[in-house]
Structures
1.
Amino acid sequence: GQNIDQPTEMTATEGAIVQINCTYQTSGFNGLFWYQQHAGEAPTFLSYNVLDGLEEKGRFSSFLSRSKGYSYLLLKELQMKDSASYLCAVRDESTLTFGKGTMLLVSP
Amino acid sequence: GAGVSQSPRYKVAKRGQDVALRCDPISGHVSLFWYQQALGQGPEFLTYFQNEAQLDKSGLPSDRFFAERPEGSVSTLKIQRTQQEDSAVYLCASSLNRGYNEQFFGPGTRLTVL
């Protein structure tokens, strides 16, 4: 089975940096994904890690340590529009198992 | 060039009623997934198709749930004799092929069972 943990809520200030952690215990591993989901909308893809290390894409970076079962999503220069739920998901053969999501609230 | 579309966007059903939810994946996408998302939770996997073959239906919560993709494109998720606990957003996603990294999600169908 798969068990994925991430904090329920986080708050941060506009312009700041925030790190959202995700730990997982899975029977299989074929990559870790981060998705962003605004209220009432579809999840949208942010990043994918399958090897250890940091993947940087603009203001967003994602890190993976397979030996520790740990990932984080780093958001820099926060903007109000970054207020959303951030979903960590692990893929086994072909299906994704999602965590419950971390609701990030960015305040002025 | 449209993304994944789903219909209806909202559905209200009386308990015991049957419902059918439709998903139009991105053209040419081989893999199609259905998820159920309860309020404040992450999406939970229901079932997976590769072309018309249903390769995994381990996430379907009961035999009241049935999914099909007869021609390998459009898919329908059917829920028979709906119950209040079926109230959720049903998300459909597609990806280019089984090994492809990114799943593209549709906007979902919000089902409310009264």
Note: Chain B has a mean pLDDT of 94.
2.
Amino acid sequence: RKEVEQDPGPFNVPEGATVAFNCTYSNSASQSFFWYRQDCRKEPKLLMSVYSSGNEDGRFTAQLNRASQYISLLIRDSKLSDSATYLCVVNGRSQGNLIFGKGTKLSVKP
Amino acid sequence: SQTIHQWPATLVQPVGSPLSLECTVEGTSNPNLYWYRQAAGRGLQLLFYSVGIGQISSEVPQNLSASRPQDRQFILSSKKLLLSDSGFYLCACPEKSGTQEKLFFGSGTQLSVL
């Protein structure tokens, strides 16, 4: 099992749609979870942390299921500007090592 | 919060040529620093991390090396580039918030080895 797995997509959705991404991780001892957003040819930028109780930031909701070892990201009322690749990130086994998924590509169409 | 400077933004180099990518950090002292590579169709791979001047740890065997000559400077090098060294190179620095350590990236260098 890969350390962090994501559906690569692409997810092609119309403006205003709700879209959800899932991510699974293999290290049951992981304690830190994040979603990053990466635009084409740009650096990844932190979108939000993922907390055990679930957390929301505007149109974005992140959830963690430790028992099943997956995290999710829900985007409501999609905007054209949400088009990007979304990276699932989990802390790894060695010091300072964050493991990045390959990303899920989202394309929001008018 | 810190600012991470990376240059150049893009680089095209022939196979066998040397490489030097520089990363400098402002706004923090004694930071941990990381070099990641993102190859086409692949996730970010940690190449090196450094906890201080002269202290380098390598995560994967490779054709590259790293050095930390100053507290806020992290350099990625190669004596002879291979085609497989092509990729998007990112320098990163963590910022601790509560119990979580979040990673922030420089703007990256897109390296094409031809």
Note: Chain B touches chain A at residues 32, 34, 36, 41-44, 46, 49, 51, 57, 59, 88, 90, 94, 97, 99-108, 110 (CB under 8 Å).
